[in-house]
Write the structure tokens for this entry.
Amino acid sequence: MDVAKQVLRSEGGARGLFKGLVPTLAREVPGNAAMFGVYEALKQYMAGGTDTSKLGRGSLIVAGGLAGASFWSSVYPTDVVKSVLQVDDYKNPKYKGSVHAFRSILASEGVKGLYKGFGPAMARSIPANAACFLAYEVTRSSLG
């Protein structure tokens, strides 16, 4: 609650609590669609059909890791835009919005600027999603 109070005071009221919401939604919706689509498609490919119940843990780990990679590969520039908007100074903003931030980064740093931190994001995402999807499948199968 203390953080919320501080944001309300220093970031222009309730609007400050929602800073970066538009690019967050623009990242999450297509990113999750890609991730879950790739995960299910890879499971079916590795199973040789739609019955994926007999897949081993190794296959689930590979499918989960690649699914996580597909999330970030499909939406990473949107995450960069979200991040710069969230840390932008409220009183003296550098960016007018998502499109302005995107264009500014592209103009000043080129396409490379839209992929700052991509390597570490992938290094985190692949094992994290591999573990997460494996845990989901193991839990699901143990519950019946």
